[in-house]
Amino acid sequence: PEATVWALEHREQRMRWWREARFGMFVHWGLYSGLAGTWEGKPVGTRGGMEWIQQRVRADTNTYAERAIPLFKPSADFATEWAQLAKAAGCRYIVFTTKHHDGFALHDSKVGDFNAGAVLGRDLVREIVDAARNAGLRVGFYHSVIDWHHPEYDFTLSNQLPHPLKGTPLERPRNHNAYLQYLHAQVDELVSNYGPIDIMWWDYSAQDFQGQTAWRAFDLMDAVRIRQPHIIMNNRLFRIPQAGWVSMGTDGYAMQVDPIYADFITPEQHIPPTGMPGVDWETCMTMNTTWGYSEHDHAWKSAETLIRNLADIASKGGNYLLNIGPRADGSVPVESIERMQAIGRWMQVNSESIYGTSASPFANLTWGRCTQKPDGADTRLYLHVFDWPANGKLTLSGLKNDVLKATLLADGKTLTPSRRGSEVIIEIPSAAPDAINTVIALTVKGQPVVVEP
Predict the structure, then answer these.
(1) Residue-wise DSSP of 248-304
(2) How many CB atoms lie within 10 A of CB 134?
(3) CA 99 – CA 142 distance, rounded (Å)
(4) DSSP type of residue 120
(5) Quick one: 368-444 is in which CATH superfamily?
(6) In terms of DSSP bridges, do strands 199-203 and 138-144 run parallel, antiparallel, or are they unpaired?
(7) pLDDT in tens, 65-119
């Protein structure tokens, strides 16, 4: 189809902003948020995804809706809070759940009645999109192709995909094609009614049920592209090696993707140990262990871990999509706010070492990470120092280029580099300006030439 041919021909152009952005905010929010990891007065667990609570307690959709809907009461200006938080953290885009596996859609949908329009008389997607755009953020739609609500979604067609009623005999055969009509119609609403949408973040497929067979995936992608020519899409309509998957595990990604299946691959809760030259990838990650809000999950990653993750991912040429799970009223847990603000403070000083950078030319650095970007005909290497040398000397091994300049991003102070054989040694202050990640900008002549020891 014409729209897809155009998209493939213009892939570099479509991907440019995303490759430069490097950092986005993920939001998991829906009916499950009000349940907050609690069912019948008891915690469902202290670890793991509570957006899956319906599956974890094996509730049918009516029981789930009865319990969850009365608790889901979004405040008037929740979306502005999210957008401001993302902006303050230095995120360039926001991806949020328009529909999770529970099947509840956040937009005012004219197909079906299990959505925010029918239930709340609000179009929450419109509110979020408007707030994000007002903050100058790009917008992505997470959309689950799995649906635990729709009566025609035929979960018997996959042994690998989850469903709360799995193992329960069906009262009647289901007509999966009728579900697909509904799925395609809702996606059409989403890509038609909210202005330019930058990302479709699909979720998810199984090795035994994926692609054209499961979702009419190519038709779905074509239809989206007709409405949104510049959109970029992830790889979760498929579960095959050509689309970047070798297994069902969230870390079961292959270091490849054919652009007919997707624009980028999606390692989950996992940072690839090395970069993936020629592959666009984005690590999505929670701040604790759940995507949707849970009042019982206190396993928060430190701000140090998150800031270093951002640098680590950028140093490998990837994007970081970091999740918040707001409460039912849309308010963000204070732990998430504090961490996003800490990242924001670091980014205010160091964002040039993240935005628009590419992967490190060094295979391994003992003290931290490196990102790089062109500086005219020369190159600016950003040295992200996690472990500040106590001896006042930072050693960079194997760099052949002449060093033109070295400065601390923290205060603009010029540092003195010298060369000893294949090593560049930079004189640094005795104490790290930033204990988490101090960045030194090193301008070198030409393109970096590195000889690994």
Answers:
(1) SSTT-B-S---TTT-SBB--BS---SS--TT--BEEEE-SSS-SS--TT---PPPHH
(2) 13
(3) 7
(4) H
(5) Golgi alpha-mannosidase II (2.60.40.1180)
(6) parallel
(7) 999 999 999 999 999 999 999 999 999 999 999 999 999 999 999 999 999 999 9
HEC sequence for 341-370: HHHHHHHHHHHHHCCCCECCCCCCCCCEEE
Tell me if 23 sits within 8 A of 322, measured CB to CB: yes
CB within 8 Å of 97: residues ≥ 6 apart: 27, 28, 29, 30, 51, 106, 142, 143, 144
Least confident of 212-216, 248-252, 323-327, 387-391: 248-252
Return residue ranges of the chain for CATH 2.60.40.1180: 368-444
DSSP state of 55: H
DSSP structural state of residue 105:
B
Domain 2-353: give its CATH code: 3.20.20.80
Whether the full predicted model's pTM is greater than 0.85, yes or no, is yes
> By CB neighbour count within 10 A (0-12 exposed, 13-18 middle, 19+ buried), where does 131 fall?
buried
- For residue 227, name the pLDDT band (cuts at 50, 70, 90): very high
User: What are the distances in angstroms from CA 143 to CA 7, 106, 201, 342, 367?
Assistant: 20, 10, 6, 29, 40
Residues carrying CATH 3.20.20.80, the chain: 2-353
For 20-53, the pLDDT digits (tens) are 999 999 999 999 999 999 999 999 999 999 999 9
Q: Are 220 and 238 in contact (CB under 8 A)?
A: no
